[in-house]
Fold:
Amino acid sequence: MKKLTLSLAALALSGTAALAQDVVRMGTEGLYPPFNFINDATGQLDGFEIELGNILCERAGFTCEWVQNDWDTIIPNLVSGNYDTIIAGMSITDARREVISFTDAYKRASPSAYMALAGTDESVIDSGVIAAQSNTVQAGLVADTNATLLEFPTPDDTISAVLNGEADAVLADREFLVPFVNDSGGDLVFIGEAVTPGDGIGMGIRQSDNALREAFNAAIAEVKADGTLNELLTKWFGPDEPLF
Amino acid sequence: MFSFCTDPSVLEQAQWFACYLTTATHMAFYRAFGVVILLLAVTAPAALAMGMLGALALRSRLAPVNMIGRGYVNLVRGVPDIVFFLFVPIALGQGIEWVMHHINCPDWDQPIRQGNDFVVCREAKVPPVGASAWVRNVYAFSMAVIAFALVFGAFVANTLYGAMQAVPRAQVETAEAYGMTRGQAFRRIVLPQMWVYALPGLSNIWQILIKATPLLFLLGIQDVVYWARELGGAKTSLFAYPHPDWRVWYFLVLLLFYLFLTWGSERIFGALNRRLARGQATAQGERQRRAEA
Structure:
């Protein structure tokens, strides 16, 4: 029995050793500040997940390369092997679990909020036209209400839809909407209650890629334990962000 | 870019714009125009070559070759472009990896398709694991060129085939009377004369090709449309250069760019047409002959 455990441990070690030289390709959207976006000063990807992803790769001993991909095809391109992980503010949901697997959450389920033009009645949440990005948990939430769902391919489009009156409100991650509300000088407000969908935000990984998932889970556990993750969460999402 | 750009939030309007329009992201936007031109420059000859092969196949007297030609032209013309653009890179990419997998990893015992996943061994990855970003960009770009050449080649094939048929029969008969073989008559008589008949159709296809370049965006290449959408979208104060939704201005620039491109090529085609009509037994050739006489 002892021998078996030893040889298993050796096997596991050799598995990670083989992985250590690997280049891991990290897929992200690059359109979803503060999670991931393109820094206009440098032209490079920037944001909470870029910083976190680089730290996780360092801890796990991977060389990481970032790949930008459209949100709508981000899962198909993962399973066909164009990159190895999705790290793009993706909520862990059962529907997605059927297609890909997730690491442990690196961010607690973030509340989604409705944002509308000032003076919009709260009743639009149940009976109005609500904009959401397609293939998001928010789109699923709106579809479950009596409101009319208006889907857009990028987060920017959902904001424009509210500004030009096409939609009564937008449902999105609260963190994403906060800068818009703050910058609007009172024109844009949150309405209704925030809802919290999903089981937190994690990295998407191919179901067959068990070694990679375990490596990232170990790295995530490490940054949770030593406080690095909490620092990052506070840095990018402010002092109200729930920590680990 | 400029030394005064260090803190954009305190700049005067003119300086702010000077800095804003020279950010790294804007530079990438300007480069994307070059990518569009490069795509056109590579795709046009590739589609023309593909079309020439198709037209020759359509003309062929060998039944199998003729069938391949007809199958290709009708299949591609019968499917929406956009479906082809989505299908070709995925199918081709996975096809290449599948072949490489069977060559490089014959002892691999796991299935390639595991549920949703497409899994091949490390050695079969194309581009190879660890390839640098530019290799991957070139690969993605080549996929796009192949998709474009396949789609537009089918239209070119039909146009060229029609043009070959339009060369007056009397010309070929005369060639035959001189004792030329079918191949000789084709190379010396039909090929040089067909262009005047092909040109209007080719110029149509060229214009459509120019207008189809925004489809690059679908193939994951960060082209002008991607950047216009990304840069034009409202930017909150998280960014160094916050601004409201300016997409309409960015798309206006694209509109002008494409209009300029099509207008310019229309003029070039006009000149080419006049040149090729010279001495031809067409109405335009006849008009030119009379004007000069």
Residues 2-20 of chain A form the longest helix (19 residues).
